[in-house]
Amino acid sequence: MVPSLSSSDNNGHVSSTPDTCSDNKVVPVSSIAAALAKPDESPYYIGFEKVRVDEYHNVSNPEGIIQLGLSENTLSLDLLKEWLNKNLNESLSQGSSDGLINVDKLAPYQQFDGIMELKKVMARFMSEVLGGGTIEFDPLQVVLTCGANPANEILCNCVADPGDAFLVPAPYYPGFNRDMKIRSTVELIPVPTLSSDNFIVTIEALNIAYDQAKKQGKNVKGLLFANPSNPVGNMFNKETLQNLLNFAKEKNIHIISDEIYAGSRYGDDKFISIAEVVYPESIEKDRVHIVYGLSKDLCIPGFRLGVVYSWNQDVLTASKKLTRFCSVPLPIQQILLSMLSDGKFIQDFMKTNQERLRKRYSIFVEGLEKLGLGYVKGSAGLYCWVNMGRLMSSQDEKGELELWDKLMNIAKISVTPGGACHCTEPGWFRCCFARLSVEDVCLTIERIKRIVESVKPKCCGCQCDRNRAK
């Protein structure tokens, strides 16, 4: 029985008595809550849950599942630990007369979009990492958020109405479906790319997707992409970025460039921000917006600092108001203000972190080559885009999911299948390597070898399949 409240007794106490008239109806929740309460069906999220209950540890759980599905960098946490141990108290005591934590400064209300001191050092940091020291970012165009995911959602709400659509070159980061669609309710339209084009989107493919969307009555409001690419790991050159800007001009739509991996480079290619393309422009900047954050490049996803950067004043004004729901705690801002102001530490950290990423990537792909598995030669990110198509029982979605299940339950490694990223070519998998020690990389390759050795050769043994997409 569902209890109900009776009137108070003689002592003024309210008592609870069974409601014999109740028909036990379930109180309805919103459609958003109902959808979120359902189990996640994507292998991307299923993998997280499986790892959560059986995660590999070299000592406590050596037979557990190795996590290659989470794009997180732990390679340089030792550098962060050293800096924090030396500077944390000083960071939080700034302005204090007694050298103790300055509660008077840290406890009161703040500007939800971030303190100006941090915006200034963040703009300088972005000028170096995104602009290569040649493009100047303006702190007045910086809006701070508690992570890049809220930054993406804020931009959705600023440039699109419910039911509007964004074109997104695919394969793309599976989390976009969650970040962009849960509350802003925009539609994401995958624009297919091909391995023969190194998974770089073409204007022809964008035009086809745009025209099809219009025929279906969809209102396309923007073009969303990650540069460097997640999950592929390649980067757009200046010509491609200019073509994307021209496309946006022609269709009169917005561009959202997610550049959160700009500083996590392990290749020789130069990163070019969309800011470099629009920098000389005088009239088209209003349609361009950048998302950035420190989760990847500084290895601090737990600090939750993201950035909306825009040339559109209406978007900036609206974004500042929306940060009321996703502001960065002031103690975190003070710590990051000190850290980003420490020029030598930042310079040394970025250099060392990139070197470590490069070495770990090299070890990982060397292992793939020994197994005869192809991959896209990446330039940035925390992952490798691997072609395991020859290990599949059938070259379709079913075969890809069967292989994903074998990797999870037989090889005991969790990877992200290409289908979860809307890749149209079955057999590609995103493998994140930046959480692995050298020993764990070697163990991962050994575990993949279990699957390779269980599959009969499908060709004469030549190099044709092995060299695919390298």
Automatic annotation (TrEMBL):
<dbReference type="GO" id="GO:0008793">
    <property type="term" value="F:aromatic-amino-acid transaminase activity"/>
</dbReference>
<feature type="domain" description="Aminotransferase class I/classII large">
    <location>
        <begin position="66"/>
        <end position="448"/>
    </location>
</feature>
<dbReference type="InterPro" id="IPR004839">
    <property type="entry name" value="Aminotransferase_I/II_large"/>
</dbReference>
<dbReference type="GO" id="GO:0030170">
    <property type="term" value="F:pyridoxal phosphate binding"/>
</dbReference>
<feature type="region of interest" description="Disordered">
    <location>
        <begin position="1"/>
        <end position="22"/>
    </location>
</feature>
<dbReference type="InterPro" id="IPR015422">
    <property type="entry name" value="PyrdxlP-dep_Trfase_small"/>
</dbReference>
<protein>
    <submittedName>
        <fullName>Transaminase</fullName>
    </submittedName>
</protein>
<dbReference type="InterPro" id="IPR050478">
    <property type="entry name" value="Ethylene_sulfur-biosynth"/>
</dbReference>
<dbReference type="GO" id="GO:0006520">
    <property type="term" value="P:amino acid metabolic process"/>
</dbReference>
<keyword id="KW-0663">Pyridoxal phosphate</keyword>
<dbReference type="InterPro" id="IPR015424">
    <property type="entry name" value="PyrdxlP-dep_Trfase"/>
</dbReference>
<dbReference type="Pfam" id="PF00155">
    <property type="entry name" value="Aminotran_1_2"/>
</dbReference>
<dbReference type="GO" id="GO:0004069">
    <property type="term" value="F:L-aspartate:2-oxoglutarate aminotransferase activity"/>
</dbReference>
<dbReference type="InterPro" id="IPR015421">
    <property type="entry name" value="PyrdxlP-dep_Trfase_major"/>
</dbReference>
